[in-house]
Amino acid sequence: LYLPEHVFTHGQLYVTFSRAQSLHKIKVLVKDGNIPGIQGVFT
């Protein structure tokens, strides 16, 4: 799973994970945990 932009809603991420045949096959790349112009912690 490559997300170059932040996820619009939690539902989008849920659907992506639910379509995987096995959770052991999912790999997530978090390139940058910051959103320009917004301070805070994002997961």
TrEMBL record:
Q: What is this protein called?
A: 1570_t:CDS:1
What organism is this sequence from? Cetraspora pellucida
- What lineage is this protein's organism placed in? Eukaryota, Fungi, Fungi incertae sedis, Mucoromycota, Glomeromycotina
